[in-house]
Amino acid sequence: MKKLIKMLSLVSVMVLVAPVASAKNAEDIYKEKYKEQAVQMLKVTVTPKLKEMGKTDAEIQTVINNTVDKLAVCQVKSIQGYDERYLNAAYEVVTSGGSLADSNAKVNELIMGDISSGKIGREVAAKQIEEGANFMQQCGMKALQSSIQ
Predict the structure, then answer these.
(1) Per-residue DSSP letters for 11-75?
(2) 8 A C-beta contact, residue 78 and residue 14
(3) Can you tell me the distance from the alpha carbon of 97 to that of 21, in angstroms, rounded to the nearest whole number?
(4) Per-residue pLDDT at 7
């Protein structure tokens, strides 16, 4: 029992003194996670169209890689307008190994809690989400178009 308590104490100390990821590091990790997940989605969605355009497999891979790099920047910019608590939650989930879907779920949970508690209005939250989605759509289209040319 003493060994177990000693081990738990050691683990607790290690957790307490573990370095917290800087905002820049968290952003970089978020971008990398985004890229990993977006590559698969883009392969499925744009490959057939690019093949129709006569692109080779190597050209398609280059377009996908370039687009994903740009989309990751778009994604980070789209969430930077969020309340700091939401942004930190999004980064925290990803930097601790979670997926972007987990990150989105956590942010949505916080937003819904803030709406329920009256911290923010439903209209304000809907407007922020809509603005982020619109930005992402516009930025994403530009990223894809510039990568194809």
Answers:
(1) HHHHHHHSPPPPHHHHHHHHHHHHHHHHHHHHHHHHHHHHHHTT--HHHHHHHHHHHHHHHHHHH
(2) no
(3) 13
(4) 33
**Alpha carbon distance 147, 38 (integer Å):** 15
Dihedral angle, C-alpha 125, 130, 131, 132, nearest 10 °: 90
Contact yes or no for 31/75 (Cβ under 8 A) = yes
Q: What residue ranges do the domains of the chain occupy? A: 21-148
Tokens describing residue 57? 């497999």
Per-residue model confidence as pLDDT tens digits over 27-74: 898 899 889 888 988 899 889 999 999 999 999 999 999 999 999 999
CA nearest 72: which of 111, 106, 102, 100?
A: 100
Question: Per-residue pLDDT averaged across 103-119, rounded?
Answer: 93
The answer to whether the beta carbons of residues 132 and 82 sit under 8 Å apart is: yes
Residues recorded for the chain: 149
- The letter for the amino acid at 52 is E
Report residue 142 as tokens: 């530009």
Is pLDDT of 80 > 60?
yes
